[in-house]
Amino acid sequence: MRASPRAALFAIAFAAATACGGRQVEVRTAPTTVSEQAVQVTNNLSQAVNVYATPTGAQELFLRQVPANTVEKIPVQGVASGMNVIFKAVTLDGSRTYQSRNVALTGLYVWSIP
Fold this sequence. Notes:
By secondary structure, the chain is mainly beta. The protein has a domain at 38-113. The chain has one helix and eight strands, in the order H-E-E-E-E-E-E-E-E. It has one helix spanning 5-19; strands at residues 38-43, 49-55, 61-66, 70-75, 83-91, 97-99, 103-105, 108-113.
């Protein structure tokens, strides 16, 4: 006994529809980092400053420009937890430079200028 062409076409269409049907997918974000190294800069000056970090034994890193009379939390990327760092802030006109003490960076370091 032969199946009609219509029945064969229906079987193929049904198989394709079930094979290409939607699949349930679970999407997740990456886990959050345990501790991010950062400095919270309070710029009390009437002009913006450029903020730098100098880890012990490494080159100075430009972090960000902080506007006048603002507070900003700045990530310090590439610095391992516990590493000693000196922060520096230079006014945009270059007339004044402020420097933090040498700190072991573990999480968030809060620094006010001046």
